[in-house]
Amino acid sequence: MVNLAFAYQRGDGLQRDYKQAAAWYGKASEAGNADGAYCLGVMYESGQGVEKNLDQAIITYRKAAQLGSQNARDALKRIGANFSVETANFETSDPRLNDVYRRATGGDSDSMDELGISYENGWGVNKDYKQAVRWYRQAAQAGNARGMGHLGAMFLKGYGVEKDYQQALNWSRKAADAGDSTGLCSLSTMYLDGYGVEKDYQQGFQLAGKCKEALVQQMR
User: Fold this and answer.
1) Mind listing the pLDDT tens digit for each residue in 166-181?
2) Single pTM value for the model
3) Which end of the chain is less crowded, N or C, counting CB atoms within 10 A of the terminal residue's CB?
4) Which of the 8 DSSP states describes residue 216?
5) From the centroid of its chain, how far is CA 134?
6) Alpha carbon separation from 157 to 74, 128, 138, 218 (Å, rounded)
7) How do the residues of the chain divide into helix, strand and coil, expressed in percent and rounded to 5?
8) Under 8 Å CB-to-CB from 212, ≥6 apart: which residues?
9) Cβ-count burial of 15 within 10 angstroms (0-12 exposed, 13-18 middle, 19+ buried)?
10) H or E, element range at 14
11) Any residues with CB less than 8 A from the CB of 41 and at least 6 apart, and which?
């Protein structure tokens, strides 16, 4: 199938036909052929024989990389979509998230946090609290205030991790110091209910006010 696709793409013994080439690369890819998947990715990236679609190119390159194609791994690195077994298995019902995922795996902390939100709420991906924690943690460790706030909230609620009020306090404080609304709200709850700290209503209500202000600013 790949040889036939090559022939159509190059016009080698056959009339050049990029659509036929893409179709045969697709069949080869479906059959588990790494070269076919890689070449199909090239066609999606270039718009040759198919409508240009970088998201689809990345998906196809990831499949090829998972099948062992070094060319596909190099292509993903060039685009900025790092490859791992996890990236190869990334599935979403929202095409926009492919770009978010590409940026997150490339080191963008805002995208890491956005991916965590998607996993926590089941937006475009299957709801998965552990994956949410994973991405929030990466964002937080990269110094992202929203990621810190979200990670603290997960420790506070015990979503995707065991409840740990000290971890919740640590990350929520860091987020609150940076003005993050989630961190401020979590810290307020902890002081009002005595989670990990002594109850302090004055401090709790003061933080609740700051949380409200931060949320108003966030909505503007």
Assistant:
1) 999 999 999 999 999 9
2) 0.62
3) C
4) H
5) 10
6) 41, 15, 19, 23
7) 70, 0, 30
8) none
9) exposed
10) none
11) 57, 58, 60, 61, 64, 72, 75
DSSP for 59-113 reads: HHHHHHHHTT-HHHHHHHHHHT----HHHHT---S-THHHHHHHHHHTT-HHHHH
Domains and CATH numbers, the chain: 1-89 (1.25.40.10)
Q: How many residues does the chain have?
A: 220
**DSSP collapsed to 3 states, the chain:** CHHHHHHHHHCCCCCCCHHHHHHHHHHHHHCCCHHHHHHHHHHHHHCCCCCCCHHHHHHHHHHHHHCCCHHHHHHHHHHCCCCCHHHHCCCCCCCHHHHHHHHHHCCCHHHHHHHHHHHHHCCCCCCCHHHHHHHHHHHHHCCCHHHHHHHHHHHHHCCCCCCCHHHHHHHHHHHHHCCCHHHHHHHHHHHHHCCCCCCCHHHHHHHHHHHHHHHHHHHC
pLDDT 10s digits, 27-68:
888 888 889 999 999 999 999 889 988 878 887 888 888 778
Read off the tokens for 201: 């209503």
